[in-house]
Amino acid sequence: MDKSYIKHKIKHDLQRLITLGKWVLFSIIMGIISGLVGSIFYNLVFAVTGLREDYPQFLLLLPVGSVLIAYMYKVFKDDNDGGTNLVLSAIHSNENIPFRMSFLIFLSTIFSHLCGASVGREGAALQIGGSVGQGLGKILKLDRNDKNTMVMCGMSGVFSALFGTPVAAAFFSMEVVSVGIMHYAALVPCVISSVIARFVAEYFGAKAPSYDIIVAQFSIKNMILVAILAGLAGLCSVLFCIILHKTEEYLKKFFSNIYIRALCGGTVLFILTVLVHSQRYNGAGIDLIKSAVEGDVQGWDFILKILFTAVSIAAAYKGGEIVPSFVIGATFGSFFGQLFGLPASLSAAIGMGAVFCGVTNTPVTSLLICFEMFGLKGWPYFLIAIAISYEVSGYYSVYQSQRIVYSKYKSNYINKQAH
Fold first, then answer.
1. pLDDT digits over 205-247, tens only?
2. SS3 (DSSP) at 414
3. What is the three-class DSSP state of 179?
4. How far is 308 from 259, CA to CA, in rounded Å?
5. Is residue 164 a contact partner of residue 38, using CB atoms and an 8 Å limit?
6. pTM assigned to the model
Protein backbone atom coordinates (compact mmCIF):
# COMPACT_ATOMS: atom_id res chain seq x y z
CA MET A 1 0.00 0.00 0.00
CA ASP A 2 1.27 3.46 -0.89
CA LYS A 3 2.95 5.16 2.10
CA SER A 4 1.57 8.56 1.12
CA TYR A 5 -1.95 7.11 1.18
CA ILE A 6 -1.38 5.65 4.63
CA LYS A 7 -0.03 8.99 5.90
CA HIS A 8 -2.99 10.81 4.41
CA LYS A 9 -5.44 8.37 6.00
CA ILE A 10 -3.75 8.64 9.42
CA LYS A 11 -3.78 12.42 9.17
CA HIS A 12 -7.46 12.40 8.18
CA ASP A 13 -8.35 10.08 11.08
CA LEU A 14 -6.44 12.26 13.53
CA GLN A 15 -8.28 15.34 12.31
CA ARG A 16 -11.61 13.61 12.88
CA LEU A 17 -10.58 12.61 16.39
CA ILE A 18 -9.42 16.16 17.12
CA THR A 19 -12.74 17.50 15.80
CA LEU A 20 -14.64 15.01 17.94
CA GLY A 21 -12.61 16.00 21.02
CA LYS A 22 -13.25 19.66 20.29
CA TRP A 23 -17.01 19.14 20.13
CA VAL A 24 -17.04 16.99 23.23
CA LEU A 25 -15.34 19.82 25.13
CA PHE A 26 -17.56 22.54 23.67
CA SER A 27 -20.75 20.60 24.32
CA ILE A 28 -19.77 19.84 27.92
CA ILE A 29 -19.30 23.56 28.50
CA MET A 30 -22.60 24.29 26.74
CA GLY A 31 -24.37 21.57 28.73
CA ILE A 32 -23.21 23.00 32.06
CA ILE A 33 -24.20 26.54 31.09
CA SER A 34 -27.55 25.37 29.69
CA GLY A 35 -28.27 23.30 32.78
CA LEU A 36 -27.55 26.19 35.12
CA VAL A 37 -29.59 28.69 33.12
CA GLY A 38 -32.42 26.21 32.62
CA SER A 39 -32.49 25.35 36.34
CA ILE A 40 -32.72 28.97 37.41
CA PHE A 41 -35.40 29.62 34.83
CA TYR A 42 -37.41 26.52 35.80
CA ASN A 43 -37.38 27.36 39.50
CA LEU A 44 -38.33 30.99 38.94
CA VAL A 45 -41.24 30.09 36.63
CA PHE A 46 -42.40 27.48 39.17
CA ALA A 47 -42.17 30.06 41.98
CA VAL A 48 -44.09 32.84 40.21
CA THR A 49 -46.75 30.38 39.02
CA GLY A 50 -47.31 29.26 42.61
CA LEU A 51 -47.41 32.88 43.73
CA ARG A 52 -50.07 33.74 41.16
CA GLU A 53 -52.17 30.72 42.07
CA ASP A 54 -51.98 31.62 45.76
CA TYR A 55 -52.69 35.29 45.11
CA PRO A 56 -55.07 35.65 42.14
CA GLN A 57 -54.77 39.42 42.48
CA PHE A 58 -51.75 39.16 40.17
CA LEU A 59 -54.22 38.51 37.34
CA LEU A 60 -55.07 42.22 37.56
CA LEU A 61 -51.70 42.79 35.88
CA LEU A 62 -52.87 41.10 32.67
CA PRO A 63 -54.02 44.29 30.86
CA VAL A 64 -50.83 46.25 31.66
CA GLY A 65 -48.27 43.45 31.88
CA SER A 66 -48.18 43.09 28.12
CA VAL A 67 -47.64 46.84 27.78
CA LEU A 68 -44.67 46.70 30.16
CA ILE A 69 -43.12 43.84 28.17
CA ALA A 70 -43.63 45.72 24.89
CA TYR A 71 -41.98 48.78 26.46
CA MET A 72 -39.03 46.75 27.71
CA TYR A 73 -38.40 45.36 24.22
CA LYS A 74 -38.72 48.88 22.81
CA VAL A 75 -36.13 50.21 25.27
CA PHE A 76 -33.69 47.49 24.25
CA LYS A 77 -34.41 48.25 20.58
CA ASP A 78 -35.81 44.78 20.01
CA ASP A 79 -39.48 45.60 19.48
CA ASN A 80 -39.55 43.56 16.25
CA ASP A 81 -38.43 40.48 18.15
CA GLY A 82 -38.91 37.37 16.03
CA GLY A 83 -38.75 35.00 18.99
CA THR A 84 -37.92 31.41 18.14
CA ASN A 85 -38.39 32.28 14.47
CA LEU A 86 -35.26 34.44 14.73
CA VAL A 87 -33.26 31.48 16.05
CA LEU A 88 -34.38 29.29 13.14
CA SER A 89 -33.67 32.09 10.67
CA ALA A 90 -30.21 32.52 12.14
CA ILE A 91 -29.37 28.91 11.33
CA HIS A 92 -30.71 29.23 7.79
CA SER A 93 -29.21 32.59 6.88
CA ASN A 94 -26.44 33.30 9.41
CA GLU A 95 -28.40 36.13 11.01
CA ASN A 96 -27.15 37.43 14.32
CA ILE A 97 -29.02 36.45 17.47
CA PRO A 98 -28.58 39.41 19.83
CA PHE A 99 -27.24 38.21 23.16
CA ARG A 100 -29.65 40.61 24.88
CA MET A 101 -32.42 38.35 23.58
CA SER A 102 -31.59 35.78 26.25
CA PHE A 103 -31.89 38.45 28.96
CA LEU A 104 -35.14 39.84 27.56
CA ILE A 105 -36.89 36.53 27.03
CA PHE A 106 -35.77 35.32 30.46
CA LEU A 107 -37.33 38.25 32.31
CA SER A 108 -40.38 38.68 30.10
CA THR A 109 -41.35 34.99 30.27
CA ILE A 110 -41.14 34.95 34.08
CA PHE A 111 -43.22 38.12 34.22
CA SER A 112 -45.72 36.66 31.72
CA HIS A 113 -46.26 33.65 33.98
CA LEU A 114 -46.67 35.92 37.02
CA CYS A 115 -49.39 37.89 35.23
CA GLY A 116 -51.17 34.73 34.07
CA ALA A 117 -50.53 34.76 30.33
CA SER A 118 -51.29 31.45 28.64
CA VAL A 119 -47.78 30.77 27.39
CA GLY A 120 -45.22 28.01 27.66
CA ARG A 121 -41.54 28.13 28.47
CA GLU A 122 -39.89 26.43 25.50
CA GLY A 123 -39.81 29.68 23.52
CA ALA A 124 -37.53 31.00 26.21
CA ALA A 125 -35.58 27.73 26.24
CA LEU A 126 -34.90 27.82 22.51
CA GLN A 127 -34.13 31.53 22.41
CA ILE A 128 -31.89 31.49 25.48
CA GLY A 129 -30.12 28.36 24.30
CA GLY A 130 -29.69 29.67 20.77
CA SER A 131 -28.46 33.06 21.94
CA VAL A 132 -25.98 31.59 24.43
CA GLY A 133 -24.84 29.03 21.86
CA GLN A 134 -24.15 31.64 19.21
CA GLY A 135 -22.46 33.88 21.76
CA LEU A 136 -20.14 31.06 22.86
CA GLY A 137 -19.46 30.28 19.21
CA LYS A 138 -18.31 33.87 18.67
CA ILE A 139 -16.08 33.76 21.74
CA LEU A 140 -14.50 30.55 20.44
CA LYS A 141 -14.18 32.16 16.96
CA LEU A 142 -15.99 29.34 15.20
CA ASP A 143 -16.96 29.54 11.53
CA ARG A 144 -20.55 29.91 10.37
CA ASN A 145 -21.38 26.20 10.24
CA ASP A 146 -19.84 25.48 13.63
CA LYS A 147 -21.67 28.46 15.16
CA ASN A 148 -24.94 27.00 13.85
CA THR A 149 -24.04 23.73 15.54
CA MET A 150 -23.45 25.63 18.79
CA VAL A 151 -26.88 27.26 18.41
CA MET A 152 -28.51 23.82 18.10
CA CYS A 153 -26.37 22.57 20.97
CA GLY A 154 -27.60 25.40 23.20
CA MET A 155 -31.21 24.85 22.16
CA SER A 156 -31.00 21.16 23.08
CA GLY A 157 -29.36 21.89 26.42
CA VAL A 158 -31.88 24.39 27.75
CA PHE A 159 -34.81 22.43 26.30
CA SER A 160 -33.57 19.32 28.14
CA ALA A 161 -33.06 21.22 31.39
CA LEU A 162 -36.59 22.63 31.35
CA PHE A 163 -38.61 19.71 30.02
CA GLY A 164 -36.75 16.76 31.49
CA THR A 165 -36.73 14.93 28.13
CA PRO A 166 -33.02 14.76 27.21
CA VAL A 167 -33.42 12.28 24.35
CA ALA A 168 -36.17 14.29 22.65
CA ALA A 169 -34.30 17.54 23.34
CA ALA A 170 -31.18 16.23 21.64
CA PHE A 171 -33.11 15.51 18.44
CA PHE A 172 -35.52 18.45 18.51
CA SER A 173 -33.01 21.14 17.58
CA MET A 174 -31.61 18.95 14.78
CA GLU A 175 -35.08 18.24 13.40
CA VAL A 176 -37.04 21.48 13.84
CA VAL A 177 -34.77 23.66 11.71
CA SER A 178 -35.45 21.96 8.37
CA VAL A 179 -38.44 19.67 7.85
CA GLY A 180 -37.50 16.54 5.93
CA ILE A 181 -33.84 16.34 6.94
CA MET A 182 -31.94 15.86 10.17
CA HIS A 183 -28.78 17.86 10.92
CA TYR A 184 -26.76 14.87 12.08
CA ALA A 185 -23.52 16.86 12.11
CA ALA A 186 -24.80 18.26 15.39
CA LEU A 187 -25.63 14.84 16.87
CA VAL A 188 -22.70 14.46 19.28
CA PRO A 189 -22.79 18.08 20.56
CA CYS A 190 -26.58 18.06 21.00
CA VAL A 191 -26.61 14.70 22.77
CA ILE A 192 -23.81 15.58 25.19
CA SER A 193 -25.18 19.06 25.89
CA SER A 194 -28.68 17.67 26.44
CA VAL A 195 -27.59 14.90 28.83
CA ILE A 196 -25.29 17.10 30.91
CA ALA A 197 -27.85 19.92 31.08
CA ARG A 198 -30.43 17.45 32.38
CA PHE A 199 -28.10 16.15 35.11
CA VAL A 200 -27.34 19.72 36.17
CA ALA A 201 -31.03 20.65 36.17
CA GLU A 202 -31.97 17.61 38.25
CA TYR A 203 -29.30 18.52 40.78
CA PHE A 204 -30.89 21.96 41.18
CA GLY A 205 -34.43 20.65 41.51
CA ALA A 206 -35.88 20.86 37.99
CA LYS A 207 -38.22 17.86 37.92
CA ALA A 208 -38.89 15.77 34.84
CA PRO A 209 -42.61 15.17 34.15
CA SER A 210 -43.82 11.59 33.78
CA TYR A 211 -47.30 10.09 33.71
CA ASP A 212 -48.71 6.60 34.20
CA ILE A 213 -51.09 5.58 31.45
CA ILE A 214 -53.43 2.66 30.83
CA VAL A 215 -52.78 1.09 27.43
CA ALA A 216 -55.76 -0.42 25.64
CA GLN A 217 -55.45 -3.89 24.19
CA PHE A 218 -53.99 -3.89 20.69
CA SER A 219 -56.86 -4.52 18.27
CA ILE A 220 -58.11 -3.46 14.85
CA LYS A 221 -60.92 -1.46 16.43
CA ASN A 222 -58.55 0.42 18.73
CA MET A 223 -56.10 1.07 15.91
CA ILE A 224 -58.91 2.58 13.82
CA LEU A 225 -59.95 4.79 16.74
CA VAL A 226 -56.36 5.89 17.26
CA ALA A 227 -56.02 6.66 13.54
CA ILE A 228 -59.16 8.81 13.69
CA LEU A 229 -57.90 10.55 16.83
CA ALA A 230 -54.55 11.20 15.14
CA GLY A 231 -56.18 12.67 12.05
CA LEU A 232 -58.38 14.95 14.15
CA ALA A 233 -55.37 15.94 16.28
CA GLY A 234 -53.52 16.84 13.08
CA LEU A 235 -56.42 19.08 12.09
CA CYS A 236 -56.44 20.50 15.61
CA SER A 237 -52.79 21.46 15.19
CA VAL A 238 -53.64 23.23 11.92
CA LEU A 239 -56.44 25.10 13.70
CA PHE A 240 -54.03 26.14 16.46
CA CYS A 241 -51.45 27.44 13.97
CA ILE A 242 -54.04 29.38 11.95
CA ILE A 243 -55.70 30.99 15.00
CA LEU A 244 -52.30 31.76 16.52
CA HIS A 245 -50.98 33.54 13.43
CA LYS A 246 -54.25 35.20 12.38
CA THR A 247 -54.92 36.61 15.85
CA GLU A 248 -51.51 38.27 15.86
CA GLU A 249 -51.95 39.43 12.26
CA TYR A 250 -55.38 40.97 12.86
CA LEU A 251 -54.33 42.72 16.06
CA LYS A 252 -51.39 44.28 14.22
CA LYS A 253 -53.69 45.31 11.39
CA PHE A 254 -56.26 47.03 13.61
CA PHE A 255 -53.84 48.43 16.20
CA SER A 256 -50.60 49.57 14.59
CA ASN A 257 -49.39 51.05 17.88
CA ILE A 258 -47.69 48.27 19.85
CA TYR A 259 -48.78 49.66 23.22
CA ILE A 260 -52.44 49.93 22.29
CA ARG A 261 -52.26 46.45 20.79
CA ALA A 262 -50.70 45.06 23.96
CA LEU A 263 -53.24 46.82 26.17
CA CYS A 264 -56.21 45.54 24.14
CA GLY A 265 -54.84 42.01 24.01
CA GLY A 266 -54.07 41.96 27.72
CA THR A 267 -57.53 43.31 28.54
CA VAL A 268 -59.22 40.64 26.41
CA LEU A 269 -57.15 38.02 28.21
CA PHE A 270 -58.24 39.37 31.59
CA ILE A 271 -61.90 39.39 30.53
CA LEU A 272 -61.63 35.79 29.32
CA THR A 273 -60.12 34.75 32.65
CA VAL A 274 -62.92 36.44 34.57
CA LEU A 275 -65.56 34.80 32.37
CA VAL A 276 -64.28 31.26 32.97
CA HIS A 277 -63.98 31.90 36.75
CA SER A 278 -60.76 29.91 36.87
CA GLN A 279 -57.02 29.99 36.22
CA ARG A 280 -57.40 26.71 34.36
CA TYR A 281 -56.16 28.18 31.07
CA ASN A 282 -53.64 30.66 32.46
CA GLY A 283 -49.95 29.90 32.58
CA ALA A 284 -48.34 26.94 30.83
CA GLY A 285 -51.08 24.50 31.84
CA ILE A 286 -49.05 21.59 33.22
CA ASP A 287 -51.84 20.84 35.74
CA LEU A 288 -54.30 20.60 32.85
CA ILE A 289 -52.17 17.87 31.26
CA LYS A 290 -52.37 15.94 34.53
CA SER A 291 -56.14 16.43 34.57
CA ALA A 292 -56.37 15.18 30.99
CA VAL A 293 -54.41 12.03 31.85
CA GLU A 294 -56.82 11.45 34.74
CA GLY A 295 -59.82 12.00 32.47
CA ASP A 296 -60.94 15.24 34.13
CA VAL A 297 -61.56 17.38 31.04
CA GLN A 298 -64.37 19.22 29.30
CA GLY A 299 -65.03 19.25 25.56
CA TRP A 300 -64.17 22.94 25.28
CA ASP A 301 -60.86 22.82 27.17
CA PHE A 302 -58.71 22.56 24.04
CA ILE A 303 -60.62 25.35 22.27
CA LEU A 304 -60.25 27.74 25.20
CA LYS A 305 -56.56 26.92 25.56
CA ILE A 306 -56.06 27.76 21.88
CA LEU A 307 -57.90 31.05 22.35
CA PHE A 308 -56.07 32.02 25.55
CA THR A 309 -52.67 31.23 24.02
CA ALA A 310 -53.35 33.03 20.74
CA VAL A 311 -54.45 36.20 22.56
CA SER A 312 -51.48 36.00 24.96
CA ILE A 313 -48.91 35.74 22.15
CA ALA A 314 -50.63 38.46 20.09
CA ALA A 315 -50.67 40.75 23.14
CA ALA A 316 -46.84 40.57 23.36
CA TYR A 317 -46.60 38.12 26.23
CA LYS A 318 -43.59 35.80 25.95
CA GLY A 319 -43.00 32.15 26.62
CA GLY A 320 -43.75 29.92 23.67
CA GLU A 321 -46.36 27.68 22.14
CA ILE A 322 -45.10 24.14 22.75
CA VAL A 323 -46.43 23.54 26.27
CA PRO A 324 -49.81 25.00 25.23
CA SER A 325 -49.74 22.56 22.29
CA PHE A 326 -49.16 19.74 24.81
CA VAL A 327 -52.20 20.92 26.76
CA ILE A 328 -54.35 21.29 23.65
CA GLY A 329 -53.45 17.81 22.44
CA ALA A 330 -53.83 16.15 25.84
CA THR A 331 -57.25 17.69 26.56
CA PHE A 332 -58.54 16.99 23.06
CA GLY A 333 -57.27 13.40 23.17
CA SER A 334 -58.68 12.75 26.63
CA PHE A 335 -62.11 14.04 25.59
CA PHE A 336 -62.03 11.88 22.45
CA GLY A 337 -61.14 8.84 24.54
CA GLN A 338 -64.09 9.43 26.84
CA LEU A 339 -66.45 9.66 23.86
CA PHE A 340 -65.25 6.52 22.10
CA GLY A 341 -64.17 4.22 24.91
CA LEU A 342 -60.41 4.53 24.82
CA PRO A 343 -58.55 4.97 28.14
CA ALA A 344 -58.38 8.71 28.86
CA SER A 345 -54.70 8.54 29.80
CA LEU A 346 -53.71 6.78 26.57
CA SER A 347 -55.83 9.13 24.46
CA ALA A 348 -54.33 12.15 26.23
CA ALA A 349 -50.81 10.89 25.50
CA ILE A 350 -51.66 10.19 21.86
CA GLY A 351 -53.34 13.57 21.42
CA MET A 352 -50.42 15.39 23.00
CA GLY A 353 -47.82 13.72 20.81
CA ALA A 354 -49.91 14.12 17.66
CA VAL A 355 -50.68 17.83 18.14
CA PHE A 356 -47.06 18.56 19.09
CA CYS A 357 -45.95 16.82 15.90
CA GLY A 358 -48.47 18.77 13.86
CA VAL A 359 -47.41 22.20 15.12
CA THR A 360 -43.64 21.57 14.96
CA ASN A 361 -43.31 19.04 12.11
CA THR A 362 -40.93 16.95 14.20
CA PRO A 363 -42.12 13.31 14.14
CA VAL A 364 -38.96 11.77 15.62
CA THR A 365 -38.92 14.22 18.54
CA SER A 366 -42.66 13.74 19.08
CA LEU A 367 -42.26 9.98 19.36
CA LEU A 368 -39.33 10.34 21.76
CA ILE A 369 -41.27 12.79 23.95
CA CYS A 370 -44.13 10.29 24.21
CA PHE A 371 -41.67 7.57 25.23
CA GLU A 372 -39.97 9.76 27.84
CA MET A 373 -43.16 11.15 29.36
CA PHE A 374 -45.51 8.17 29.07
CA GLY A 375 -43.29 5.11 28.75
CA LEU A 376 -42.89 2.52 25.99
CA LYS A 377 -46.09 0.54 26.58
CA GLY A 378 -48.12 2.55 24.09
CA TRP A 379 -45.49 2.60 21.34
CA PRO A 380 -47.66 1.13 18.51
CA TYR A 381 -50.34 3.73 19.11
CA PHE A 382 -47.83 6.58 19.43
CA LEU A 383 -46.09 5.55 16.22
CA ILE A 384 -49.28 5.34 14.14
CA ALA A 385 -50.70 8.57 15.58
CA ILE A 386 -47.61 10.67 15.00
CA ALA A 387 -47.18 9.41 11.44
CA ILE A 388 -50.79 10.26 10.57
CA SER A 389 -50.69 13.67 12.26
CA TYR A 390 -47.47 14.53 10.42
CA GLU A 391 -49.23 13.95 7.09
CA VAL A 392 -52.57 15.54 7.98
CA SER A 393 -51.04 18.76 9.40
CA GLY A 394 -49.57 19.72 6.04
CA TYR A 395 -47.07 22.58 5.98
CA TYR A 396 -48.44 24.52 8.93
CA SER A 397 -46.18 25.33 11.85
CA VAL A 398 -46.07 27.54 14.92
CA TYR A 399 -42.66 28.61 13.58
CA GLN A 400 -43.14 30.43 10.29
CA SER A 401 -39.37 30.56 9.73
CA GLN A 402 -39.26 26.77 9.63
CA ARG A 403 -38.16 25.48 6.21
CA ILE A 404 -39.94 22.57 4.54
CA VAL A 405 -36.94 21.15 2.71
CA TYR A 406 -38.49 17.92 1.45
CA SER A 407 -42.15 17.34 0.69
CA LYS A 408 -44.23 15.36 3.17
CA TYR A 409 -46.04 13.64 0.33
CA LYS A 410 -43.42 12.98 -2.36
CA SER A 411 -39.69 12.33 -2.27
CA ASN A 412 -38.82 15.66 -3.80
CA TYR A 413 -37.01 18.82 -2.74
CA ILE A 414 -39.34 21.81 -2.31
CA ASN A 415 -37.55 24.16 0.15
CA LYS A 416 -40.56 26.29 1.05
CA GLN A 417 -41.40 28.23 4.17
CA ALA A 418 -43.98 26.86 6.60
CA HIS A 419 -47.40 28.52 6.89
1. 999 888 999 999 889 999 999 999 999 999 999 999 999 999 9
2. strand
3. strand
4. 19
5. no
6. 0.94
